[in-house]
Design a protein that fits this description.
The chain has 308 residues and is an alpha+beta fold. It has 8 helices and 12 strands. The protein has helices at residues 55-70, 93-97, 105-110, 114-119, 151-156, 201-215, 259-264, 293-305; strands at residues 7-17, 41-44, 48-51, 74-75, 78-79, 128-130, 160-167, 174-183, 189-197, 232-244, 278-281, 284-289.
C-alpha cells in the first residue's frame, strides 16, 4: 500500500491545557534540588530547553481513545479493534502476522482491524504519525503571544510545583511522601502536526473520534489523571492535503487506487471529502483547508458513521 504515494495530509493541531499537565521525564535527573517527578523536556536548536508534548505520548492516548470508540464493533464487516495491540500472540493483528512470510502483504492488510489499519501493528506500517508538540506556533507573527519566545512559551516553562503523598488504604495515614511533582500550568497552548499517508476518509473520521474524546474530557493526557491532571482542549487549525494526479477534488485513497488494489488490500467503501480549491504542486494537487477544517472533520465523521 505504501509502494505508491496516492494521497497524504498534514493536520495542524493545537492543544490547550484545561488543567495542569504532567508528562513524566522518567527520572529525576542529577539536580539534588530538583523535583522528585519532573516534566519531560527537550532542547530545541533555536529556542533552547523547553517542555513539550512528545508525539509518542499523544499518539498513545489518541490510539487508546480511538480503539475504545470502536472496540467490540464490526464496521463494514471489519473488526473495530483487536483485543490488545501490545499482545504479540494470537490475540492481536500484529501477533498473528508479524512473523508471517507466506501471506501476501495485501491480504495481511485486509485482515487487520480498523485501529491497526490506521495506527499500525508489528506486521504493517500505520497510516498516521504524530509529531512532537511545542509551546509556540510557526504560523504566529513576531510579537504574538503564541510565537516562539512569546508569553505562551514563557508561561509553559514556568512550571508549577505540587506536593503530594500516597495514603495507606488500610490505615488511612501517609505511606509514601511527601513528594514533589512538576506540572505544566493550565491555560497554555502546544502546537504540532499529525500526518496521514495513503488514507481513507473513514480513517480521518476515526482520528476525529479520538480528538472529540480528548476535547470533551473523556480522555486525558499525561500522568496523574486520577488527581485531576491532563484535561485538554484539542482543535484542528488547518489541513493540507496532497494527492497524485490532477483531479480537481480531494479524494481518499479508495478513489485513487486501482480496482485490483482496492480488492487486494480490502479497502472499505470510500467517503467524500469536501470541495476545495486545489493548486498544482509538482506532480500532485494540493488542497488547503484553513477556515474549512471543520468541514473536513465532519466529512471524516460521516465516512466512519457510514460503515455502521
Amino acid at each position: 500500500m505504501f509502494r505508491t504515494n496516492y494521497n497524504r495530509a498534514v493536520l495542524r493541531i493545537r492543544i490547550d491545557t484545561v488543567t495542569p499537565l504532567r508528562i513524566g521525564a522518567g527520572d529525576a535527573g542529577l539536580d539534588p534540588t530538583g523535583a522528585d517527578l519532573t516534566c519531560v523536556r527537550t532542547r530545541h536548536g533555536s529556542h533552547g530547553a523547553t517542555v513539550y508534548i512528545p508525539g509518542s505520548s499523544l499518539k498513545g492516548v489518541i490510539r487508546a481513545a480511538a480503539e475504545a470508540s470502536v472496540r467490540g464493533r464490526k464496521l463494514a464487516g471489519v473488526l473495530g479493534a483487536c483485543d490488545d495491540p501490545l499482545e504479540h500472540k494470537g490475540g492481536s493483528c500484529g501477533g498473528r502476522y508479524q512473523n508471517d512470510s507466506d501471506t501476501p502483504t495485501q491480504a495481511i492488510h485486509g485482515a487487520h482491524c480498523l485501529a491497526c489499519r490506521l495506527f499500525g501493528s508489528p506486521a504493517i506500517k500505520g497510516r498516521a504519525s504524530v509529531r512532537d508538540l511545542f509551546p509556540w506556533s510557526d504560523a504566529a507573527s513576531p510579537g504574538d503571544r503564541h510565537a516562539a519566545g512569546g508569553e505562551n512559551h514563557t508561561s509553559a516553562n514556568r512550571l508549577e510545583l505540587r506536593h503530594g503523598v500516597a495514603i495507606d488504604r488500610v490505615l488511612g495515614s501517609v505511606k509514601h511522601g511527601p513528594f514533589d511533582q512538576e506540572l505544566v500550568p493550565a491555560g497554555v497552548a502546544f502546537f504540532g502536526d499529525i500526518a496521514l499517508e495513503n488514507y481513507q476518509v473513514w480513517q480521518l473520521g476515526l482520528l476525529v473520534e479520538a480528538f472529540d474524546q480528548l476535547d470533551n474530557g473523556f480522555a486525558q493526557l499525561g500522568s496523574s489523571k486520577s488527581r485531576g491532571l491532563g484535561v485538554v482542549a484539542l482543535a484542528v487549525e488547518r489541513i493540507v492535503h496532497e494527492q497524485a494526479g490532477r483531479r480537481l477534488r480531494p479524494c481518499g485513497v479508495g478513489d485513487l487506487a486501482t480496482a485490483e488494489e482496492h480488492k487486494a488490500y480490502g479497502l472499505l467503501v470510500e467517503g467524500e471529502l469536501p470541495l476545495a480549491d486545489g493548486t498544482p504542486h509538482g506532480l500532485a494537487m494540493r488542497f488547503e483547508a484553513h477556515g474549512q477544517a471543520t468541514d473536513w472533520l465532519t466529512a471524516g465523521r460521516a465516512a466512519l458513521g457510514a460503515l455502521l
